[in-house]
Amino acid sequence: MRVASRHPFPHPSIRRLPLYLRFLKQLRDAGSQKISCTRIARELDLDSTQVRKDLALTGIVGRPRIGYVLTDLVQAIEKFLGWDQRALAFLAGVGNLGRAIIGYEDFRRCGLDIVAAFDIDAGKIGGEVFGRRVYHPAEMPALTPKLGVSVGVITVPAVAAQEVADVMVKSGISGIWNFSPIRLELPPRVRVENALLTSSLAVLSVDLKRESPEAAPPFQRPPARRSR
Ligand code: NAD
């Protein structure tokens, strides 16, 4: 994964690219060689003009009546996303979420290689999580240039997130994937992406509410009262 400089690409389009990539790789692995925009749109339930625009971001243009050569398209998307390269990352906060992220080996296929972790819990320092050594954050400034790490993943409690981000900045990290619910204050040279599951849940909640405006989503419904 490459940490991109400030870019003009629309984020919704970028967010759809991994969806295309997954689908296209499945087709390629099943032996298909060509694909049209219309088919991608149909299979993924999207608008074909939108799909064409999204794919054009990668610099690849489909040919009329032929579409795209699958291997070229997969390559172009991976290159555009920077997933054809490897970015080394540190993760801070080896709790429930941190462990799950370190253990999810598929991020490697997206070019993100978490090489070590950091925690202030004495019981975790010096140990290993999914083969990655856990250090105290005080060791980060020395380890970052030594290992050539460019990305920091933050999975510490909200109260500790800014402090951890400051250590990452001081260490020379250039991109932060922030899972804490706070807005980090960072110098302009450092890119941040806030990953919030609650934002995704909000979309589902509103969709459910729209489908059945009378009923709140089940997880918000107050317990039923018994009438006597
Ligand atoms: P957790 O309590 O299980 O783990 C937090 C870990 O951070 C602990 O191991 C703790 O020792 C460590 N820690 C605390 N202060 C630290 C510091 N200064 N430096 C390094 N390590 C430190 O918490 P969790 O449930 O894994 O949640 C972690 C964070 O992720 C929270 O901010 C939570 O709100 C957030 N979260 C985000 C999402 C999301 O969708 N983005 C989902 C779940 C949780």
Question: What features would you highlight for this structure?
Answer:
228 residues, Rossmann fold, 9 helices, binds nicotinamide-adenine-dinucleotide, globular, Arc Repressor Mutant, subunit A, 7-stranded mixed β-sheet
Structure description:
The chain folds into 2 domains: about 10-80, Arc Repressor Mutant, subunit A; about 85-200, Rossmann fold (3-Layer(aba) Sandwich). The protein has about 230 residues and is α/β, with parallel strands linked by helices. It has helices at about 10-30, 35-45, 50-55, 70-80, 95-105, 105-110, 140-145, 160-170, 195-210, and strands at about 35, 70, 85-90, 110-120, 130, 130-135, 150-155, 175-180, 190-195. The strands form 2 sheets. A 7-stranded mixed beta sheet has the order 5-6-4-3-7-8-9. The protein has a two-stranded antiparallel sheet with strand order 1-2. A hairpin with a 2-residue loop joins strand 5 (about 130) and strand 6. Helix 1 packs antiparallel against helix 4 (about 70-80), helix 2 crosses helix 3 (about 50-55) and helix 7 (about 140-145) crosses helix 8 (about 160-170). The radius of gyration is 21 Å and the shape is globular. The chain is built from 9 helices and 9 strands. The chain binds nicotinamide-adenine-dinucleotide. Nicotinamide-adenine-dinucleotide (NAD) binds near residues 97 and 156.
User: What is the helix content?
Assistant: 40-55%
Largest sheet: 7 strands, mixed
Structural class: alpha/beta
Strand order of the largest sheet: 5-6-4-3-7-8-9
The gross shape turns out to be globular
Query: What is the CATH topology of the largest domain?
Result: Rossmann fold
Q: Supply the CATH superfamily name of the largest domain.
A: NAD(P)-binding Rossmann-like Domain
CATH architecture grouping of the largest domain:
3-Layer(aba) Sandwich
Q: What is the gyration radius calculated from CA atoms?
A: 21 Å
- State which percent range the strand residues make up: 15-25%
Count the beta strands. Answer: 9
Alpha plus pi helix count: 9
CATH C-level of the largest domain: Alpha Beta
Bound molecules: nicotinamide-adenine-dinucleotide
- Whole-number mean pLDDT: 90
Q: What is the number of independent domains?
A: 2
Query: Could you list the spans in which at least 5 consecutive residues all have pLDDT below 50?
Result: none
What is the helix/strand order? HEHHEHEHHEEEHEHEEH
